[in-house]
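Example record

The entry below shows one chain as it appears in the dataset: sequence first, then structure tokens.
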Amino acid sequence: MISVKTKFKNYNIIIKKGELKNAKEYFNLNRKVLIVTDSGVPEKYSKTILDQCKQGLILTIPQGEESKNIDNYILILKTLTTNNFTRKDCIVAVGGGVVGDISGFSAASYMRGIDFYNVPTTFLSMVDSSIGGKTAIDFCGYKNIVGAFWQPSAVLIDTEVLSTLPKRQIICGMVESIKMSLTHNEELFNIFLNNEQFKEEKTEEIICKSLLIKKAVVEKDEFENGERKVLNFGHTIAHAIESAESFNELYHGECVAIGMIPMCGEEVKPKLLKVLEHLNLLNNISINKSQLKEAVKHDKKAYGNKISIVKVNKIGTYEIEETDIKNIENLLEEAF
């Protein structure tokens, strides 16, 4: 168990295989509970939670980033209102980052805030969005532009649910752990470096070490005013890639993998490339230098003329610096 302490709320993250059936031991489900999930999550997970509720209701939204919209946000609020949920009731998110984001934002805004529990079902959401309290929806073409900081009351990570997750999604989630290890923990990075293939017995260790890194960052900078920028390592280029139609078949983790490479120093880059090769990420991604440069240019307005980037010249350390688009293009030229 990991205990997170913030100015707004303290909460626990429980990491235990097969523990979904005991959710009531960690969540207060002795009240009205709205369980929000998506169509890509096996129904048995939300039903396992439902069976433990005094009075529960499941709401399923379509799978995918497109569902993190204002219409589904309104749907959740209407469901809460028409079923007479009160300030003493709660929402449980069962799914990946999309479900967690929209559920958390709904909980933050309904009756000025109700309890929110998170059951992440993807590797990425386990190590990333399950902790930190950032909730949001996409609006007018902008990702996460409407949202709130709203900490969960508890998080339950049952690694058994990963057995139904496609390998590609697991690997993409691992990129987030690799990202955090590069900036903070060489020991964690060496788990990836020294294992040519993903080993299931390492899963909980990787998740725990990743969450401890993010916990430390979040506790120091709960509202993203400074140090939390380090979590954007690799994301400056990744966000630009995600906004370009020529890369729309790539997952977020694959974009971050590309985005980290130019931000690593000469000592670190070969080791990162070796890890990415172990995970077959470089084989699955076609890197077109000119398209990458165009993607970064396209995203210029989102970041302004000056961009804050995170660089890693030694594993376990990082530097945050301000630069401009031209320097980003030069880094891409050198990296690929």
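Notes for this example: The first helix runs from residue 43 to 50. The chain is about 40% helix and 20% strand.
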